[in-house]
Automatic annotation (TrEMBL):
Gene3D superfamilies: 3.30.450.40, Winged helix-like DNA-binding domain superfamily/Winged helix DNA-binding domain. It comes from Phytohabitans houttuyneae. The keyword Transcription applies. InterPro entries: ANTAR (IPR005561), GAF (IPR003018), GAF-like_dom_sf (IPR029016), WH-like_DNA-bd_sf (IPR036388). This is ANTAR domain-containing protein. SUPFAM superfamilies: GAF domain-like. GO terms for molecular function: RNA binding. Keywords: Transcription, Transcription regulation. Residues 183-244 form the ANTAR domain.
Length: 267
C-alpha cells in the first residue's frame, strides 16, 4: 500500500497539517538509522497516539536472544498488560510477534481461548479492543507495536495501513542499528536493551517534570527535551538524567535554533 494513499485518506485531509504530521512521524521514527533505537521506539509510540484512534500504546523489542522486552509504554495500564503477556507467554501482542502478523482482538467482551487471563485483565482496565502490529526488520519480527482502544472495534483499514507503515519504518531503523554491532543480530544487545529501558524510564520522568515546570503538554515537553539535547549535542537519556537531577536548566522560550519541531498544531 502506498504512503500517498494513507496521507490522502487518514482523517479525510489530503494536505496541510495532517500530511505534515505524517511526514514528521516518519522522519522521527527513522532517526534510529542514525544510531538511536530508543528514540525510534519513543517516536513510534508518540506518533501512534497522535495519528491513530487509540487510547494507549506500547512497543516491545527483542533482545539478542530473541526474547521480547517491554521498552516504551504510555501508561501503567499498558505496562501491566504487556507484563502479563510476557509473563504468561500469551496475548495478542506476543502472538503478533510470534507469527510476524497483525493480530486484532476487536471486542474484549468476546473471550479468546488463547489468552483468557489477558482478556480479563484488559477488560477490567477498560480496554475494549487490541490491535498488535509486528515490527519487522529484514523479514524477521524484532518487536511489536501494541495499540489499545477503549471502544470495541479494530482500526479502520486506512489507520491499520498507517500503523503497519509506521511499525515498518521502526523495524528498518532498529534493524540497521542492531546490524552496526558485532555478535548476534536478532535484536538489540542485552546490555543495550537494558540501557534503553532504563533511559525510557528516565526520559518519561524528565518529560513529566518539564511539562509541570514549564506548564506545557507532554508531547511538547518531549519535543523540547529532544531539541535541547540535539542543540547541546547530548543523548536524550543523558539530558533527561540531568533534568531529573536538577543539574540541567531548560526554560522557555527556546532560541529559534532550539524550537521543537511541530510542537504547535500537532495535536
Amino acid at each position: 500500500m502506498k504512503l500517498g494513499w494513507i496521507v490522502q485518506d487518514v482523517g479525510g485531509n489530503s494536505s496541510g497539517n495532517r500530511e505534515r504530521m505524517i511526514a514528521v512521524a516518519f522522519d522521527e521514527i527513522g532517526a534510529a538509522e542514525r544510531g538511536d533505537a530508543l528514540e525510534a521506539a519513543h517516536a513510534l509510540v508518540r506518533w501512534s497516539m497522535r495519528l491513530l484512534d487509540v487510547s494507549g500504546a506500547g512497543v516491545m523489542l527483542t533482545d539478542d536472544h530473541g526474547s521480547l522486552r517491554s521498552v516504551i509504554v504510555t501508561s501503567d495500564l499498558v505496562r501491566a498488560l504487556e507484563a502479563a503477556e510476557l509473563r504468561d507467554g500469551r496475548g495478542p501482542c506476543v502472538e503478533s510477534h510470534r507469527t510476524a502478523a497483525v493480530v486484532v482482538h476487536p471486542d474484549m467482551q468476546v473471550a479468546d481461548s488463547r489468552w483468557l487471563e489477558f482478556g480479563v485483565l484488559a477488560w477490567s482496565g477498560g480496554v475494549r479492543a487490541v490491535h498488535a502490529v509486528p515490527v519487522v526488520g529484514e523479514g524477521a519480527a524484532i518487536g511489536v507495536l501494541n495499540l489499545f482502544r477503549m471502544t470495541p472495534g479494530g482500526l479502520s483499514d486506512v489507520e491499520a495501513a498507517l500503523a503497519q507503515a509506521l511499525a515498518g519504518m521502526a523495524g528498518t531503523a532498529v534493524h540497521r542499528r542492531a546490524a552496526t554491532r558485532p555478535g548476534p543480530r536478532t535484536g538489540l544487545g542485552g546490555a543495550e536493551l537494558a540501557a534503553a529501558i532504563a533511559d525510557a524510564a528516565i526520559v518519561q520522568r524528565a518529560t513529566g517534570m518539564l511539562a509541570a515546570r514549564l506548564r506545557i503538554d507532554i508531547d511538547t515537553a518531549h519535543a523540547v527535551l529532544q531539541r535541547v539535547a540535539a542543540d547541546r549535542d547530548l543523548n536524550v537519556g543523558r539530558l533527561a538524567n540531568s533534568v531529573v537531577a536538577g543539574t540541567a536548566t531548560i526554560t522557555l522560550p527556546l532560541s529559534i535554533a532550539s524550537r521543537p519541531p511541530d510542537a504547535a498544531g500537532a495535536d
